[in-house]
Design goal:
Elements lengths: L3 H13 L6 E2 L4 E16 L4 E18 L4 E14 L4 E14 L5 E7 L35 H4 L4 E11 L2 E11 L20 E11 L2 E12 L5 H4 L3 H4 L2 E14 L2 E12 L10 E11 L4 E14 L3 E17 L2 E14 L5 E15 L1
Antiparallel strand pairs: 1-2, 2-3, 2-17, 3-4, 4-5, 5-6, 6-7, 7-8, 8-9, 9-10, 10-11, 11-12, 12-13, 13-14, 14-15, 15-16, 16-17
Length: about 375
């Protein structure tokens, strides 16, 4: 749950920095960040298997420098799941490296590696101290990247983004448009330089939204081409037919803050423009959260999440989660969290497989 006032504060923090959250060196480079450490208990209901695990769920380290009054440089390092290269644990990502230009509220520009605007949660999904969740809505949970095809549901990176808002009476029209690489990034050194797009296509995307008082709503979309030639043998299809398959992501978001109640919901649908009769890779995700603030420090919420991932003709994967939790702000830089979730997993691969999980978690989210 992103409370409306907190989201506004966070946006200002990321773009311009905050003296309370940062340290300024003699070179005027601000360093700040946050991390979330957790204890997880998971029980596999059919088999009664259980696991307990402490982990550093996520750590983000930011570097920022104001180059001029209108230009800002920003770097974001992200570490997941008790990252250790020596032990082959987790992952380390160079999540963002960009320079931003602030002309006015109507027009802002980011150039460089960045998390693009898509729905409400994508840009701020790793701001753990401002989120009440321990485990975030499924396609925004970075630590699940080995389990769920997160990059399929939401755009992970762009390189040029123009955005801002236009006043309209008491409301604001929000807009964002961005371009970036296609998802066809080379990861094999034998094929040349890694980390570069291996095709001549681009990612195009954006969001158009409306903010009125404490209500916010918007629609998002992205378009890019995937290289599915690796499926040619499985689908018995010519390579040329699978070289550029159009992927379209469509999203919608709504959030509100009404007295002590707040809520938000999102829907995402991913489709592939491939008319092969045996191929279906469409995906869907929905979540809705309703929360209540007992005080400025104590927040209680309940949430419903659902994903459906198709990999036909091979399998279809469904994951439904009912979850609830509480967050307590001990002081400005330390948040205590607890969360329970019941997950139902269905896999249609023959023979069909169903799994129910109970999940309990405690966490500390710390700003430094």
């Amino acid at each position: 749950m992103i409370r409306f006032k907190s989201a506004i504060f966070l946006t200002g923090l990321v773009i311009y920095g905050s003296p309370a959250w940062s340290q300024t060196t003699d070179t005027n480079i601000k360093t700040f960040g946050y991390f979330q450490i957790s204890f997880d208990h998971q029980k596999d209901l059919p088999s009664e298997n259980e696991l307990n695990s402490f982990q550093v769920q996520q750590l983000n380290l930011f570097l920022q420098k104001n180059l001029t009054a209108k230009w800002t440089a920003f770097i974001n390092f992200e570490f997941l799941n008790s990252y250790s290269s020596f032990r082959n644990w987790g992952a380390h990502n160079l999540e963002e490296v960009w320079v931003g230009f602030h002309s006015s509220n109507q027009f802002k520009l980011k150039l460089g590696l960045q998390v693009p605007t898509f729905n409400n949660l994508n840009e701020i999904k790793n701001r753990t101290p401002l989120l009440p969740y321990i485990i975030r809505p499924l396609v925004y949970e970075s630590s699940f990247n080995e389990i769920i095809a997160i990059d399929e549901f939401v755009p992970a990176r762009a390189f040029v983004q123009a955005y801002g808002f236009i006043p309209w009476g008491d409301a604001k029209i929000e807009h964002a448009f961005y371009i970036g690489n296609s998802p066809n990034i080379n990861t094999d050194p034998r094929r040349g330089q890694t980390g570069v797009d291996s095709t001549n296509t681009f990612l195009f995307g954006g969001r158009l939204g409306l903010r009125f008082l404490n209500l916010k709503a918007g629609v998002s979309a992205t378009f890019d081409d995937l290289d599915f030639t690796s499926l040619a043998d499985t689908l018995k299809s010519p390579l040329a037919r699978l070289r550029k398959v159009l992927r379209v992501r469509l999203g919608a978001d709504f959030s509100f803050n009404l007295g002590k109640f707040s809520g938000e919901a999102e829907a995402i649908r991913v489709t592939y423009d491939e008319d092969h009769p045996d191929f279906d890779g469409d995906k869907e995700f929905y979540y809705a959260t309703l929360g209540y603030s007992f005080s400025e420090k104590l927040f209680l919420y309940g949430s419903y999440w659902a994903t459906r991932e198709k990999y036909l003709p091979v399998t279809e994967f469904d994951l439904v989660v009912l979850t609830g939790g509480v967050s307590f702000t001990l002081f400005d830089d330390l948040v205590l969290k607890a969360q329970y979730a019941r997950a139902e997993i269905t896999n249609s691969r023959q023979p069909p497989h169903e799994l129910d999980l109970d999940y309990y978690a405690l966490a500390l989210s710390v700003v430094f």
